[in-house]
Structures are given as C-alpha cells and as structure tokens.
UniProtKB/TrEMBL annotation:
One of its GO terms (molecular function) is nucleic acid binding. Gene3D superfamilies: Ribonuclease H-like superfamily/Ribonuclease H. Residues 10-58 form the Tc1-like transposase DDE domain. InterPro entries: RNaseH_sf, Tc1-like_DDE_dom. This is Transposable element Tcb2 transposase. It comes from the Eukaryota. The lineage of its organism: Eukaryota, Metazoa, Ecdysozoa, Arthropoda, Chelicerata.
Length: 108
C-alpha cells in the first residue's frame, strides 16, 4: 500500500470491534472517518456483486477453499474491462447525487 494510504470501511459492527480497532492501531493504520449514514460510494461493492453472480452461475460450485480461491481468481481475470471503466466513470455522477441529497442514501 505504501506509506500514505487511508483505510476505509463501512462502519459495519464487525469492523468496529475492539479486536479490529486494536489490530489497526497495532499496525499504525489510519482509518478514514466514515459517517454511519453516509451512502456507499465505493464501486468495489459492484465488483463483489459481479463476482457473486458469476460464482453462483458456475455449473460446479467450488467445494474447498482452494477451489473457491481458484474460481474467484478465474472470475476476476475474466471481468470485463468495460465494467471497471463504467464504475470509474460513474463516480462523478454518484458524488453529485450524494451531494444533492445532502449525504443521504442514493440509489446504486
């Protein structure tokens, strides 16, 4: 990651446990302030959705952790560049929408 990065999570309770806080602190990882009601502007959620659909569509679902890892790597490699480009290009519109609704939830 390099020396100048900021960690962002979604404020889910599992990300705010004492253990998670202690781990981040022990590794000197700075966390981005992220309001509990802020909309999820992270395009990675769409990538996870894509991977989930692709995994569900497999004729032979992975059974072991190794098979799951390999299947996810295959699907990641097969992800269309157009999907990634579209997500990146959508960020301006999504940020404008977020500002228009004053930080409330926005439709994906």
């Amino acid at each position: 990651m390099g020396l100048q990065f900021l960690f962002m999570d979604d404020n889910a309770p599992c990300h705010r446990t004492v253990a998670a806080e202690q781990l981040l602190e022990s590794e000197d990882i700075e966390r981005m302030d992220w309001l509990a009601r802020s909309p999820d502007l992270n395009p990675i959620e769409h990538v996870w959705h894509f991977l989930g659909r692709r995994m569900a569509a497999r004729t032979l679902p992975p059974v072991t952790i190794r098979e799951l890892r390999l299947a996810l790597q295959d699907e990641w490699a097969a992800m269309p560049q157009q999907l990634i480009d579209t997500l990146i290009l959508s960020m301006g519109r999504r940020c404008e929408t977020c500002l228009a609704v004053r930080g409330d939830h926005i439709p994906y």
